[in-house]
Design goal:
CATH architecture of the largest domain: 3-Layer(aba) Sandwich
CATH class of the largest domain: Alpha Beta
Helix content: 40-55%
Shape: globular
Structural class: alpha/beta
Length: about 300
């Protein structure tokens, strides 16, 4: 197998169309078809089901794609290691993040890092918690800033940067808005504004409500933190959000009220591959992030 064949195969699998893949690769469609044919002949299996120029992966093709995506990412990482070996202070950090850390945590860390290493570049990938963990496993990124930090994952290892409280976000007209703290049980009859099913913050909220003896009534769902805040601001429900997401941007018409029972916290930290080393520049940022947040926590205490 040749690397060119593998890259052609991945592009065709992604687009499910020979001609579209050829355009993306800037080569003739016949060249793509020939390389796919040669690859299938060498492997002795059909990787695609052909329907004209539209194609679909066969079951073995899907398995092959998963392995080849990882292989190409490893190859690209190896090339980047060579590029960064002589000067890791001029490399690139590939890092993923969810919306709950987008507004304050990650920009603050990157800004401070760039003060020390101004020539380092960043490539950012936003996604949900599980999308980011899967991206680390596949090698699409080598680091993700996530909360909570994964603790029992065979292919990803996590390290905690800090722990933060989950707080109630209420419309300012809410009967409990003037209280210094609330129990979750006091919100049992309220409509909740949550992330969709499958999002970690929704799971944290639902689990805490069940711990308090009720199932939350979900009135609206939003896929990013700004949407959640906006819906609460409009008086459409209450929500539970990480406290740090409200540091610089408490929405108009809302109040934040600490939750005193149950105790709601989440860890925030970095998820990295368990079976691959970080690239030199990424290792530099990883160490810096731990030092920076340790110093920040010490200063705040």
């Amino acid at each position: 197998m040749e690397l060119r064949q593998i890259k052609y195969f991945i592009e065709v699998a992604k687009r499910e169309h020979m001609t579209k893949a050829a355009h993306a690769l800037h080569v003739a469609q016949s060249a793509v078809s020939r390389q796919i044919f040669n690859l299938e002949k060498e492997l002795g299996v059909a990787l695609f089901i052909r329907e004209g120029r539209t194609v679909r992966l066969t079951p073995i093709g899907r398995v092959f794609l998963e392995h080849m995506e990882r292989a190409v990412n490893v190859f690209d990482d190896a090339k980047q290691v060579i590029d960064e070996y002589t000067d890791p202070e001029r490399g690139t950090v590939h890092i993923g993040f969810p919306s709950s850390v987008a507004a304050y945590i990650l920009p603050t860390a990157i800004s401070k890092f760039r003060d020390a290493y101004p020539n380092v570049k960043f490539k950012l990938k936003q996604g949900s918690y599980y999308e980011l963990i899967e991206a680390v496993v596949k090698g699409e990124i080598n680091m993700a800033l996530v909360g909570p930090v994964p603790v029992e994952h065979a292919k990803v290892k996590g390290s905690v940067l800090f722990t933060e409280a989950i707080t109630a976000l209420l419309p300012s007209s809410h009967p409990l808005a003037s209280k210094s703290a609330v129990t979750l049980n006091e919100l049992r009859h309220d409509a909740f504004v949550l992330f969709p099913e499958g999002y970690v913050l929704r799971g944290i909220t639902v689990d805490a409500c069940r711990q308090s003896g009720f199932q939350p009534i979900v009135s609206f769902e939003g896929e990013d933190m700004d949407a959640i805040k906006g819906l609460v601001s409009a008086g459409l429900g209450v929500s539970l959000v990480p406290e740090i997401t409200l540091i610089d941007s408490l929405p108009r018409g809302t109040v934040k009220v600490p939750v005193k029972e149950p105790n709601m916290v989440r860890t925030v930290g970095l998820a990295i591959p368990a079976e691959r080393d970080l690239l030199p520049t990424e290792a530099l940022f990883h160490s810096f992030a731990h030092e920076f947040f340790a110093m920040l926590e010490k200063f705040q205490n």
